Amino acid sequence: MNKSIIFLSFFITASSLLFANNNPAETDTVPKPKYWDVKNTITFNSEQNMYENWEQGGVSSFAFSVFYRGAYNYQKNKVSWNNSAELGYGLLRQDISGKGIMHSSNVFNKSDDKIDLNSVFGYRAIKNWNYSGLLNLRSQFDDGFKDGKLVSSTLSPAILTSSIGFEYKPKPYFSTLFSFLTGKTTYVMKDTLAIPGNFGFKNIGQHWDFSLGSYIKIFYDRDIFKNVHMVSKLEFYYDYRKTTLLDTDINFETMITMKVNKYLSTFLHVQMVMNKDFSTALQIKERFGISIPITF
């Protein structure tokens, strides 16, 4: 993981230097061109249900989560550099024992956990087409359980994807990236998860695995109606070690935000994943609720 930490440190430092170089000095009298477009959004969500002597039954619960999305996009002449960060974490506590939500017999369970850092560098080749390079890091903050069994943990796995290819971008809000030279490295820091059968690992004590394959990413980000914004992406990754295209990893994710008023929004987040290294079944995550967004 040292390589990933070095990469993240370099990424943050480089971004800071570029931001600094594009801030006009206070003594300048002529406005400088604006090359950076920066937008940050923090969303807070909370929900509580309480039942006591309710004839239809029910389980009291309390849930909260926080989600951050930052977009840092640079454009100058033929050069573009689009960066994004998505960080999310949420907890849910249910009164399973019937002794009260905060009773020691009940515990918090994770309802959301996401680290997704993305950087795409482009250089215009011809109209609507760019030479493109991509770096993407995906992981999580906390332990994850399925049927009481630990299946993931902090930076376990952490998936680093790097690719070189072409990007088709006919509109600012729509793009498709094609790469037939993509490296995908899966890291697992926790020893108890670094076992054969997990994340495609085949050897005892194996903590990382590298594969070479093809990658396609379709991305859409725009207001679809007044006060309704949608961010959507569809990704395909095929490992050249696999023997059939049916083993292609697929990730589809859509976030729709609907502004209610100045202070409140509703959101719908849907994600579907097909990754046979984890499970042969389709993975589905859906979240819907009211949020308090802060944009700066």
Topology at a glance:
Elements: H1 2-21, E1 36-49, E2 61-76, E3 79-94, E4 108-126, E5 129-139, E6 144-146, E7 149-152, E8 158-171, E9 174-187, E10 208-225, E11 228-239, E12 249-259, E13 265-274, E14 283-295
Antiparallel strand pairs: 1-2, 1-14, 2-3, 3-4, 4-5, 5-8, 6-7, 8-9, 9-10, 10-11, 11-12, 12-13, 13-14
Describe it for me?
The chain is mainly beta and about 300 residues long. The protein has one domain (about 1-295): Outer membrane phospholipase (ompla), Chain C (Beta Barrel). The protein has one helix at about 1-20; strands at about 35-50, 60-75, 80-95, 110-125, 130-140, 145, 150, 160-170, 175-185, 210-225, 230-240, 250-260, 265-275, 285-295. The protein has a 12-stranded antiparallel β-barrel. A two-stranded antiparallel ribbon has the order 6-7. The longest helix has 20 residues, at about 1-20. The chain is globular. It starts with a helix and ends with a strand.
